[in-house]
Amino acid sequence: MAVEDREPEDPKPGFVTLKVNYSGICGSELSAFVGQNELRKPPSIMGHEFTGKVVKVGSDSDRYLLGKNVAVNPLVTCGKCRYCRTGNRQLCPERKLIGVDYPGGFEEYVNVPDYSCYEIVEKPEGSLAEPLATAFRAVFHAMPEIDDRALIIGAGTIGLLSTKLLETYGTVDRVVVDINDFRLEHALHWGATKVINNKKEKGIPKDFDVVIDAVGTQDTRMMAINSVARGGRIVFVGLHEPQAAVPINYMIRSEIETYGSFCYSDDNFRRSVDLINRGFLDINERWYDIRPLEKGEDSFNEELSPESRYSKIILKP
Prior knowledge:
Elements: E1 15-24, H1 27-33, E2 49-57, E3 69-72, E4 75-76, H2 82-85, E5 96-97, E6 109-113, E7 117-119, H3 129-142, E8 149-153, H4 157-168, E9 173-178, H5 181-189, E10 194-197, E11 208-213, H6 218-227, E12 228-236, H7 248-253, E13 257-260, H8 266-277, E14 288-292, H9 296-304, E15 312-316
Parallel strand pairs: 8-9, 8-11, 9-10, 11-12, 12-13, 14-15
Antiparallel strand pairs: 1-2, 1-6, 1-15, 2-3, 3-7, 4-5
Helix pairs in contact: 3-4, 3-8
């Protein structure tokens, strides 16, 4: 990973240029950093969780955006298929992503489509609109009900945000599992009723109505299946490993409902921006840290460590 100087490009019609304020490191980018992500290949400029101020527009019709601080929905889609027309652009067959197929937010200036911009508060929490929307969709698929018991696997950003959302739905138990004690401590501030370090403690409670796997490995997917109640619901949102072997006959006979949850609909993203603007993520606890872009490589290595003190590191160009 290296920092380079280059001239910013002018935005094309329908695009705007942002001066990036904050850009968070995502777990999918950590897997790319170590060569374990099938979509992200070097060389690339990653970063898809970011906010910035609009400083230039490619079309006169977008001049109203100048000077506004915006969060960016990084999905770039065809706009014509049935998925795009129903607001489910995450399912577009031609879907591309800023930070993968286009230069992302780990740079000082970035060009994004005008339709990707949502006005948002000018503070670090604004860069969490994208992960909050991802958690929002995972919880939507989980269909939590009042009095449900929930297990959240992984105390990274998606796990923490899912925990907080599950609390608002009236779940009575929210157990968070991770191997990092610092992140588990953060989870207690985000609505967890109990935390478990599964590297130190043997045996995970069972019979949960809802399980969200925010990690995505063979082990965590099996943990989800072994922990959910008969007739319960599992949402797989973590993407760390592309394949997994699961006991499908057991799942059928137990009537376990499973959902894949990828990204977010346009409505999920809009609602997440609204929640942030209303202070939903204003937690008086230092669960993230802000670093200059030049500390990017060190920050990636730190986040990969099981002893990382933060659930999120946000880079500031």
